[in-house]
Every structure is written in structure tokens, then in C-alpha cells.
Structure prediction request, 99 residues.
Amino acid sequence: MAEIVSTNDTLGGAPRIEGRRIGVHHIAKRVRDAGDSPEQVAADYDLDIADVYRALVYYYDHADEMHQIQAECQSVPDELSVVRGPEDLDSKTQSEPEA
Prediction:
């Protein structure tokens, strides 16, 4: 069985299963949002079932932290922009068609 750890150099410091790059929020998303069973998640990631349940317990015990991590995963950093169509592009960055 692995512990839940957080290190700045892996997953940006988000809690994860020790020795793996599988975040607690990834496991919770699969079980809660996708409706996958803990057994299926364990099989897909080659984890002990206890590790999946440990991640879920951590998720629920640290709800505020998990909501913050999820919000950060869904946000776009200030230095980036979202382009949905041509009207979102700056006219200076659009290339001129060749004649």
C-alpha cells in the first residue's frame, strides 16, 4: 500500500499516490464524475484497491484543497489565451494571405 504524498516537482504539488504520477483528483474524477468503479480504476492504473480508496478518503477529507486543485486545472493561465475562432485572434498576429 502506498501513501498519499505531495511534492512540488510532481503534478505541481498536487496530492498523489506515492511512487506514481496519479493524482488524487484524477482518481476521484474517474470514480465520482465518470462513474467508474474503484476496482476498475485500480485495474486500469495497476494499483491496489486500497490505494484507490485511500485516495478517495483523502479527497473527501481535504475537500477545499481538492476544489482548489480542480479549479486550477480548469483555468487558463494569464499568459495564455483561449481562441475559439478567428474573431479571438489579434489582427497583428494573423498572417496575411500570400498574393
